[in-house]
Design a protein that fits this description.
The chain is an alpha+beta fold. It folds into 5 domains: about 5-175, 3-Layer(aba) Sandwich (Rossmann fold), CATH 3.40.50; about 190-275, Translation factors (Elongation Factor Tu (Ef-tu), domain 3, Beta Barrel), CATH 2.40.30.10; about 290-365, Elongation Factor G (Translational Gtpase), domain 3 (Alpha-Beta Plaits, 2-Layer Sandwich); about 370-475, 2-Layer Sandwich (Alpha-Beta Plaits), CATH 3.30.70.240; about 505-590, 2-Layer Sandwich (Alpha-Beta Plaits). It contains 14 helices and 31 strands. An 8-stranded antiparallel sheet has the order 11-10-16-7-8-15-12-13. A 6-stranded mixed sheet has the order 2-3-1-4-5-6, with helices on both faces. Strands 21, 22, 23, 24, 25 and 26 form a 6-stranded antiparallel sheet that branches. Helix 7 (about 305-315) crosses helix 8 and helix 12 (about 500-515) runs antiparallel to helix 14 (about 585-590). The longest helix has 21 residues, at about 555-575.
Length: about 600
């Protein structure tokens, strides 16, 4: 195909600004999907995406418009899936920046726009939702010009819901997006920008040809993995998979080569021909690093092997989470999993339960600490129970984030109060317009992962938005709080917290467990401890059977004799008895909301 006829672009925006709806209108207008087969969020293929109304995986589609071909990629908007956005930009020459005409610029709008600028991509900006009564397109066009430097008269006004202005947007993509460059006669260089696993056909890779021609009859070499495969099928998504015999430079499509391991066709992989192939690999991507860690345990111990199998299969579809086996004295055998964020953790857990029929307990989320011991050795520790004894530790360093919060100015006090209580340090405060400002804070990741986002939304009535980037490690006064039941430590409830918050955490956890643990035939002390020092305590009272009920008068010594006998029995039971903790107690005590 002639390079002049090809345009490669992707849609980027903050969450809920209308990316998937815009993709729907484009599919309709270009005739890619028959009107009878059309449904909302057509490109969101996962049930979870459709239920939650969010995009989790990027999706590509080929559209025809006025004699040209537009290769479009729909990307996620949530901060946890930012790595999907960065991958899609490597396959494009321009981006469609969508901004809500009723809300204006949000945190992810800025983050994604800066990503596009770093990649030297043409930005086609548009204000969406102009059909809303609360829309103020002129005001927010001026804000985009002020903050991002895109001229207000170049910003298109559209409604993805009604289709108003979308044909003009498609025309603007053809006009403003530079055609791709590539040498059709050179050796093949193709970039894999996404992969997923199909249980019948193996790995299906989304691919962008940079140079040369990808043909279905050529044997292919995967340069990073060092493996060779015969292609089973190459094709384009229109949006249904349509096989073709070849893909030329600048074209986007898919490749199936009977690969059973996603590790051999990772995102960022360079594909070339086995004979007379390219000698240089294309610039790939940085592997996303997990930021939040949690233990996943099957409620029924017999399901451990099923959980392992499920994690292996799920990792083929989502290579951004990690897992390794671990054992807990309280919960048995399970896996320590690493996620990109709290939403990512929820999605993975929900997919495991739905797609593989498992029932799971997840431990409280924690982050990765760098622990320096007295002998100078540095341990990387993501599980609180792996922390060495306090006497051996010289210092503990925790990960920090640089968080950017965009908010209406009347909520500034509430946000500053929230960040200060989470040990945040103000770096920058800048007004984007008289009514809106950007606050940049440096915050410990451990203070953000539990409920920071929920608190931020509730304190600002949903108007604030958050974006963050990792910002190194810093040492702090961190301690491990252990929960002891009947004198024995329960590792599932151990956590690492800042010294100033240790007493508060210990007291709350002890009181919560008092409500959840059923009464035994003996007293059960619940204690929170740092090292050997008890910082909080509460007690689950014992049952007391009325052993004197059968007496009907007589000497007091008979009554005392029976009560002393009961006391001896309770003492003996306390020495040998074990506290039975129901699974519900674990689930309730480890709930994220609290």
């Amino acid at each position: 195909m002639n390079l002049e006829q090809i345009r490669n672009t992707s849609i980027i925006a903050h969450i809920d600004h209308g990316k998937s709806t815009l993709a729907d209108r484009m599919l309709e207008l270009t005739g890619a999907v028959d009107a009878r087969a059309m449904r909302a969020q057509y490109l969101d293929s996962m049930d979870l995406e459709r239920e939650r109304g969010i995009t989790i995986k990027l999706q590509s589609v080929r559209l025809g418009w006025k004699g040209s071909v537009i290769n479009l990629i729909d990307t996620p908007g949530h901060v946890d899936f930012g790595y999907e956005v960065s991958r899609s930009l490597a396959a494009c020459e321009s981006v469609i920046l969508v901004v809500d005409a009723a809300q204006g610029i949000e945190a992810q709008t800025l983050a994604n726009c800066y990503l596009a600028m770093e990649n030297d991509l043409e930005i086609v900006a548009c204000l969406n939702k102009i059909d809303l009564p609360a829309a103020e397109p002129d005001r927010y066009a001026a804000e985009i010009e002020n903050v991002l430097g895109i001229p207000a008269d170049e910003i298109l006004r559209i409604s993805a819901k009604t289709g108003e202005g979308v044909p003009a947007l498609l025309d603007a993509i053809l006009e403003r997006t530079p055609p791709p460059v590539g040498d059709a006669d050179g050796p093949l260089q193709a970039l894999i920008f996404d992969s997923h696993f199909d249980q019948y056909r193996g790995v299906v890779s989304s691919i962008r040809v940079m140079n040369g021609v990808l043909r279905s009859k050529d044997k292919l070499r995967f340069m990073h993995a060092g493996t060779s495969h015969d292609p089973d099928e190459i094709g384009v998504r229109t949006p249904d998979n349509t096989p073709v015999s070849e893909l030329g430079p600048g074209e986007t499509g898919y490749l199936i080569a009977g690969i059973k391991d996603v590790g051999e066709a990772r995102s960022g992989e360079t594909v070339t021909t086995d004979r007379h192939g390219a000698s240089e690999v294309l610039a790939g991507y940085q592997e996303p690093k997990p930021m939040v860690f949690s233990g996943l345990y099957p409620i029924d111990g017999d399901e451990f092997s099923d959980l392992r199998e499920a994690l292996e299969k799920l990792r083929l579809n989502d290579s951004s989470f990690t897992y390794e086996p671990e054992t807990s004295g309280a919960l048995g055998f399970g896996f320590r999993c690493g996620f990109l964020g709290l939403l990512h953790m929820e999605i993975v857990r929900e997919r495991l339960e739905r797609e593989f029929g498992l029932t799971l307990i997840s431990t409280a989320p924690s982050v990765e600490y760098h622990v320096t011991r007295g002998d100078g050795a540095v341990l990387v520790c993501s599980n609180p129970s792996d922390l060495p004894p306090a006497a051996e530790i010289t210092s503990i360093a925790e990960p920090y984030l640089r968080a950017s919060i965009l908010t209406p100015s009347n909520y500034t006090g509430a946000i500053m109060d929230l960040c200060q209580t989470r040990r945040g340090e103000l770096i920058k405060m800048e007004y984007l317009s008289p009514e809106r400002l950007e606050l940049v804070y440096r915050l410990p990741l451990a203070e953000v992962v539990i409920d920071f986002f929920d608190q931020l939304k509730s304190r600002t009535q949903g108007y604030a938005s958050l974006d963050y980037d990792p910002d190194g490690y810093d040492t702090g006064k961190l301690v491990r709080v252990d929960i002891l039941l009947h004198g024995e430590s329960v590792d599932a409830f151990s956590t690492i917290v800042h010294n100033d918050k240790a007493y508060d955490y210990g007291r709350k956890m002890a009181e919560k467990l008092k409500e959840l643990i059923p009464r035994q035939n003996f007293e059960v002390p619940i204690q929170a401890a740092i090292g050997g020092k008890i910082i909080a305590r509460t007690t689950v009272k014992a049952y007391r059977k009325d052993v004197t009920a059968k007496l009907y008068g007589g000497d007091i010594t008979r009554k005392n004799k029976l009560l002393n006998k009961q006391k001896e029995g309770k003492k003996r039971m306390k020495a040998i008895g074990r506290v039975d903790i129901p699974q519900e107690a674990f689930i309730s005590a480890l709930q994220l909301d609290d």
